[in-house]
C-alpha cells in the first residue's frame, strides 16, 4: 500500500446492495423505460439525434444504416452498432410502430419474424412523425446535457409535439419492473388532449368517449371494454385481442377459414406452425391444409377444412389453443422526473400537456428574444438611414473600424450591436426599395413581439397553441381506427354452434371413447342380431355405454371415487366402426382409474342431489352444486373403503326411492329420505348388505315414475317387472329376488327403470350393438329367468345397457313387421327372431 493511502473496510452485503441499486437505477433511467414526455428510451432518442445531425429529414435522401448506427454509437450511445441497429429497425417497422419514426429502405424484417438485412445493406431517414418529435429542438425548448465523453451536447428529452408515448406505445423490462403501453390512434389522442385542455376536471370515463382504446398496427379485434377501462383508470389491465377471421365457401362447396389480421406482436410463421402442430397431434381435427397467401396487398392465411368440418367450431378451437386469441397486458409505466411511475390515461395526457406548455413558453421566449434583438438592430439601421450623410461622413473620418463604432455610439446614442450592424451594412441597403423592406420588417417584428409577449402573458393562448398543434397532427397523420372494439366479452361457446341431439357415448375396456348420433341406429325387433357399433381390437371390448345431449355436461366418475368434468361435444364423433379416441387425452385420469359412471348435467342447482353407489353396497347423497367446479385433474366424489369401488351415480330431487340390484339376482328398494345428506368428501351410509361375490351391487335405479324395472343378464336375457312388485324396505337389508340367475342366463349385469315408450341399447363384449323397443319386452314376475334380448355368438357377453327415450315424431317401434332398423348404410346381419 502506498504511503498516505487508507483502507476502508466495507461489508460485502452493503457493497452488493449499493452496487445493485446503482445498476438497477441505471437500467431504469438510462435503458429500459421511456420518458413520459417524449415516449422514448435513451437509445431511441440518441438515434434520432444522430439522424438529425446528419440532416436526414423526410425530404432528404436515405443514408446507410451502418453510418447512422456508427454515428449514434460514436457520438451518443457507446454500446456498439450491433446493439443500436435493432432499435433503429424497430422504429421503422410498420407492424410494430403504429406511426413509424424512421422511413426505412430495404429489408427491415417482417411480421413472420424474418430478421432485417445487415445494416450495410439498408438505408433510412426520419419519418414525418419524428420531425414533429424534434421540432423546435434548436429553440432552447429542452435541456441539454453532455454526451458520454463530454465532447458533445445531447437533448435530455425532445420537445415532442407528436404525443409519441400513447400513439406508438412502449415496452421494456427494467430491474423489478416492466412497461407495456399499447399504441393508440393519433386522431383519438388529439381529441382527448383537446377535451382535457377544455375541461381539466374531465373524468376518464368521459375521456374514453374520445379515446376508445388501443389501436394496434396489426389491427385485430379487442373483445370487451373492461380491460381497457381498467388500464385507463388504474394503469394496469388485460386486453383480449383476437385475429380477424372469416369463413369462406368456395365454388366446390368446401369451407376455408381466412385470417387477414392477427393480434399485435404475434409472429405469423410461429402461429401457422402452431396450428400445423395441433393438426398433426390430433388436438384440432377437420383441417385439410394450411397456406400463407400473404403478399404486398396484405395478410391472408387460408385454412382449408374437410367436408364434414364446422368452420366456426374449428375457429373457436384455434382461438383457445393458439395466439389467434392473445392477451395484451397493459402496464402504463414511464419515467416522471427520472422516477418510474404507473399512470392512468388522464395522467399521461396531463404530462404531455404540461411538457408542451413548457416547450411552447421556452420556444416563445426564444422567438421573442430573437425578434427583440432583430428589432433592436433594425432600429439602429433606421437611425442610420435617416442620417445617412452624417453617418457616411463620420465613417470616412474615422481611422479604424473601432473608432468609427465608438463615434457612431456617441453621436447617435446607439448600442454596440447597432453600431456594428451599421458598419456591416452594404451599400445596396441605401436604395429606396431596401429602405422600405427594412421598415416593413421592423413593423412586422413589432407585431410579432406583441403577439409573443401576449402568449407568455396568457395561459389560455398557450393552451390554444397546443390545441392547434394537435389538430394539425390529426389533419396530417389521422387515419381510420384499425383495431375494432367489440363491447361484449361473452366467450364464444362451441355448443351454440352444435345442434342439440342425443349422442351414444361408448367406451371400450382399453379406454377409447367416441360419440355417435342415436339416429345412426335404426330400430329392430326383440332378438335381432344387431350391428357393430364400435370397432375394437381382438383383445379389447366395449365396456360402457351412455346417452346424453351434445349440450350437456358429463360428470365422469371413476371407480376410485373421483369425478371429472367434460362436455359431450368435446367427445370426438367418429364413424360407426371406429374405435374412438383414448379417454386419457380428454380427462386427466390416473393410470389405475377406470370409468364407473357418467351423469349428464345441464346446470348445477342447490335443489338437486347426486346419489352415488358402490360395489360393496354403500350409498351417498350430496348436493349437486358441490360438484359444479371440478379441477382439470378431477376431485374426490366419495371416500371408499379398501376393496370397494364406485359403480353408479344418479341425480335426484331428494324424494325418490332407490333400488340397488346385486349380481346374484336380488334387489332392495328403500326411500332416498333415509339416506342422510353429507358433504362431498365423505363415505356415505350402508345401502344394502352384501354377502360374497353374488352380493356385489351391479346397478342402481332411482325410481321417478310408475314404471317397470328391466334387468339384463350377462348372456343376453332380460325381463321387465312392475315397480310395484318391489316393496319398500329399510335401508341396509339383503333385498328380494328380482331374477333367477342360472347357467343359461348368467349373472345380473344391469338394471334400468323403463316404460313402454322407451327404447333400449344393448352392447356386447365384441362390440355388437342393438336398439330395440321396450314395448317388445314382456312384463313378467320377479321369480323368472327372463327372455332372450340379444342373440350372442359363442364367447360373447353383454357388457353395457342403456335406455333410449323415444323422440317425438318417431314410430312406436313395435310393429315394424320384423324388418328391423340397422345402422344406416349397413346390411342386416341376420333375420330377427319372432
Number of helices: 17
**Estimated radius of gyration:** 42 Å
**Number of strand segments:** 41
On the 0 to 100 scale, the average pLDDT is: 85
Q: Any idea what the CATH superfamily of the largest domain is called? A: DNA gyrase/topoisomerase IV, subunit A, C-terminal
Domains (count) = 4
CATH topological fold name of the largest domain: Neuraminidase
Poorly predicted residue ranges: 805-834
Under the CATH scheme, the architecture of the largest domain is 6 Propeller
Assign an overall shape: elongated
Report how far apart the termini are. 115 Å
From the helix content, strand content and strand pairing, which structural class follows?
Answer: alpha+beta
Oligomer: single chain
The largest sheet is:
4 strands, mixed
| Strand composition percent | 15-25%
Going across the biggest sheet, name each strand in turn: 14-9-8-17
DSSP helix fraction: 25-40%
Q: What is the CATH C-level name of the largest domain?
A: Mainly Beta
Amino acid at each position: 500500500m502506498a504511503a498516505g493511502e487508507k483502507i476502508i473496510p466495507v461489508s460485502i452485503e452493503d457493497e452488493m446492495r449499493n452496487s445493485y441499486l446503482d445498476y438497477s437505477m441505471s437500467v431504469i433511467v438510462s435503458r429500459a423505460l421511456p420518458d413520459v414526455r417524449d415516449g422514448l428510451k435513451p437509445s431511441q432518442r440518441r438515434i434520432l439525434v444522430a439522424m438529425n445531425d446528419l440532416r436526414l429529414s423526410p425530404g432528404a435522401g436515405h443514408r446507410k444504416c451502418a453510418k447512422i448506427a456508427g454515428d449514434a454509437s460514436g457520438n451518443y450511445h457507446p454500446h456498439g452498432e450491433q446493439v443500436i441497429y435493432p432499435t433503429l429497425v424497430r422504429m421503422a417497422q410498420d407492424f410494430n410502430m403504429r406511426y413509424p419514426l424512421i422511413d426505412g429502405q430495404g429489408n427491415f424484417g417482417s411480421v413472420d419474424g424474418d430478421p432485417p438485412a445487415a445494416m450495410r445493406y439498408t438505408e433510412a431517414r426520419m419519418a414525418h412523425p419524428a420531425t414533429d418529435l424534434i421540432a423546435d429542438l434548436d429553440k432552447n425548448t429542452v435541456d441539454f446535457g453532455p454526451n458520454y465523453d463530454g465532447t458533445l451536447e445531447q437533448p435530455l428529452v425532445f420537445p415532442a409535439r407528436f404525443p409519441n408515448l400513447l400513439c406508438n406505445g412502449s415496452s421494456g423490462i427494467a430491474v423489478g419492473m416492466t412497461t407495456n403501453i399499447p399504441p393508440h390512434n393519433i386522431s383519438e389522442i388529439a381529441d382527448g388532449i383537446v377535451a382535457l385542455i377544455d375541461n381539466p376536471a374531465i373524468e376518464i370515463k368521459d375521456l374514453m368517449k374520445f379515446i376508445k382504446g388501443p389501436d394496434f398496427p396489426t389491427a385485430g379485434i379487442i373483445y370487451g371494454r373492461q380491460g381497457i377501462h381498467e388500464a385507463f383508470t388504474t394503469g394496469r389491465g388485460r386486453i383480449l385481442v383476437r385475429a380477424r377471421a372469416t369463413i369462406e365457401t368456395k365454388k366446390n362447396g368446401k369451407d376455408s377459414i381466412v385470417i387477414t389480421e392477427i393480434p399485435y406482436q404475434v409472429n405469423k410463421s410461429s402461429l401457422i406452425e402452431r396450428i400445423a402442430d395441433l393438426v398433426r397431434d390430433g388436438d384440432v381435427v377437420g383441417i385439410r391444409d394450411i397456406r400463407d397467401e400473404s403478399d404486398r396487398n396484405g395478410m391472408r392465411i387460408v385454412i382449408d377444412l374437410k367436408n364434414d368440418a364446422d368452420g366456426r367450431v374449428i375457429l373457436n378451437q384455434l382461438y383457445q389453443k393458439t395466439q389467434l386469441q392473445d392477451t395484451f397486458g397493459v402496464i402504463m409505466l414511464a419515467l416522471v422526473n427520472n422516477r418510474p411511475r404507473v399512470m392512468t390515461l388522464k395522467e399521461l395526457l396531463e404530462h404531455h400537456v404540461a411538457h408542451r406548455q413548457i416547450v411552447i413558453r421556452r420556444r416563445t421566449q426564444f422567438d421573442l428574444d430573437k425578434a427583440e434583438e432583430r428589432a433592436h438592430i433594425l432600429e439602429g439601421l433606421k437611425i442610420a438611414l435617416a442620417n445617412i450623410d452624417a453617418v457616411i461622413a463620420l465613417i470616412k473620418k474615422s481611422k479604424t473600424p473601432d473608432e468609427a463604432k465608438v463615434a457612431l455610439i456617441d453621436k447617435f446614442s446607439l448600442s454596440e450591436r447597432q453600431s456594428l450592424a451599421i458598419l456591416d451594412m452594404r451599400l445596396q441597403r441605401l436604395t429606396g426599395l431596401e429602405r422600405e423592406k427594412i421598415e416593413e420588417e421592423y413593423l412586422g417584428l413589432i407585431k410579432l413581439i406583441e403577439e409573443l409577449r401576449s402568449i407568455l402573458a396568457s395561459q389560455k393562448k398557450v393552451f390554444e397553441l397546443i390545441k392547434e398543434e394537435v389538430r394539425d397532427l390529426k389533419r396530417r397523420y389521422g387515419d381510420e381506427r384499425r383495431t375494432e372494439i367489440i363491447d361484449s366479452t361473452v366467450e364464444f361457446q362451441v355448443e351454440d354452434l352444435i345442434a342439440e341431439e342425443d349422442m351414444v357415448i361408448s367406451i371400450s375396456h382399453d379406454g377409447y371413447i367416441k360419440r355417435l348420433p342415436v339416429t345412426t341406429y335404426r330400430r329392430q325387433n326383440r332378438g335381432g342380431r344387431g350391428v357393430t357399433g364400435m370397432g375394437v381390437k381382438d383383445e379389447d371390448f366395449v365396456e360402457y355405454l351412455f346417452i346424453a345431449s351434445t349440450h350437456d355436461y358429463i360428470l365422469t366418475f371413476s371407480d376410485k371415487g373421483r369425478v371429472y368434468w367434460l362436455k359431450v361435444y368435446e367427445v370426438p364423433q367418429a364413424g360407426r366402426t371406429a374405435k374412438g379416441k383414448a379417454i386419457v387425452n380428454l380427462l386427466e385420469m390416473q393410470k389405475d382409474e377406470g370409468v364407473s359412471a357418467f351423469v349428464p348435467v345441464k346446470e348445477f342447482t342447490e335443489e338437486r342431489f347426486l346419489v352415488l353407489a358402490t360395489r360393496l353396497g354403500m350409498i351417498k347423497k350430496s348436493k349437486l352444486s358441490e360438484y359444479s367446479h371440478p379441477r382439470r385433474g378431477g376431485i374426490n366424489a366419495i371416500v371408499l373403503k379398501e376393496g370397494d369401488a364406485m359403480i353408479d351415480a344418479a341425480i335426484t330431487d331428494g324424494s325418490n326411492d332407490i333400488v340397488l340390484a346385486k349380481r346374484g339376482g336380488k334387489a332392495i328398494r328403500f326411500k332416498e329420505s333415509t339416506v342422510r345428506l353429507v358433504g362431498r368428501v365423505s363415505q356415505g351410509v350402508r345401502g344394502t348388505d352384501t354377502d360374497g361375490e353374488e352380493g356385489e351391487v351391479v346397478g342402481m335405479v332411482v325410481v321417478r315414475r310408475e314404471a317397470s324395472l328391466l334387468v339384463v343378464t350377462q348372456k343376453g336375457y332380460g325381463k321387465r317387472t312392475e315397480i310395484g312388485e318391489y316393496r319398500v324396505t329399510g335401508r341396509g337389508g339383503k333385498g328380494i329376488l328380482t331374477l333367477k340367475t342360472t347357467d343359461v342366463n348368467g349373472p345380473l349385469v344391469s338394471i334400468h327403470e323403463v316404460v313402454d315408450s322407451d327404447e333400449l341399447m344393448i352392447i356386447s363384449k365384441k362390440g355388437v350393438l342393438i336398439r330395440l323397443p321396450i314395448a317388445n319386452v314382456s312384463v313378467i314376475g320377479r321369480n323368472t329367468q327372463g327372455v332372450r334380448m340379444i342373440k350372442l355368438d359363442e364367447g360373447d357377453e353383454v357388457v353395457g345397457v342403456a335406455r333410449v327415450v323415444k323422440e317425438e315424431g318417431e314410430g312406436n317401434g313395435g310393429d315394424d313387421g320384423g324388418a328391423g332398423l340397422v345402422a344406416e348404410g349397413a346390411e342386416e346381419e341376420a333375420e330377427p327372431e319372432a
